[in-house]
What we know:
- This protein has two domains: 8-86, Beta Barrel (Elongation Factor Tu (Ef-tu), domain 3), CATH 2.40.30; 105-196, Elongation Factor Tu (Ef-tu), domain 3 (Beta Barrel).
- The protein contains three helices and twelve strands; from the N terminus they run E-E-E-E-E-H-E-E-E-E-E-E-H-E-H.
- The strands form two sheets. It has a six-stranded antiparallel barrel with strand order 1-2-5-4-3-6. Strands 7-8-11-10-9-12 form a six-stranded antiparallel beta barrel.
- By secondary structure, the protein is mainly beta.
- A hairpin with a 2-residue loop joins strand 7 (105-115) and strand 8.
- Helix content is 14%, strand content 41%.
- It is globular and about 50 Å long.
- The chain has helices at 67-71, 166-171, 189-207; strands at residues 8-17, 24-29, 43-46, 49-57, 60-65, 80-86, 105-115, 118-125, 138-141, 144-154, 157-164, 182-187.
Amino acid sequence: MFTGIVAALGRIEQCVPIAEGGGVRLVVEASALGLDDVAIGDSIAIQGACMTVVRIDGGRLSFDVSAESLARTAGLDRPGEVNLEKALRLADRLGGHLVSGHVDGLGEVRRFEPVGESWLLQIRAPLDLAGFLAYKGSITVNGVSLTVNRVEDSALGCDFSINLIPHTIAVTTLRHLMPGDRVNLEIDLIARYCQRLLSVGAASEGAGVPPVSAVSGSA
Length: 219
């Protein structure tokens, strides 16, 4: 579990194909993250995608990324700067929102431009994520917890807008975005469960089954 508050910027230095399966091994320069408490097997969010540390070499961390993960994410298939975050500890502050590190879909940057002292970022999300995007709701973009300021639905997708303050621009990879770029999106965890509960409730009513709230029992 993560918060979407980027702890450090790292850099993918190597992206080496793995002989079997079409995946790659990433070697990430991550010394700015502070690795004294990082061990093999730990989870690290890279551009919003939860990955497992398989090797530590000084300030470099290695991760094996499957072909499936590569197909469903952006920015993990080539060298470049990346957002990094360690997994959340129970005693940590929840500065952003609850983030699982599981990418739900790829968005496309439509606009990225300065507006006064801030920056306007507009992204088109896939239609299947439209129901999870709401005004003043939370969204994770490339591992960064952000607040949605505007939502517009169309036949082509769901366009949502975000206001980025100068601090966010300075400490994340979002400053490199350009129109047409793909970004990793993770919807709000609570919204995901609400949708599931509502869909199960509707299906139960149609089948004559008591709703979840009416079912009781003991473990």
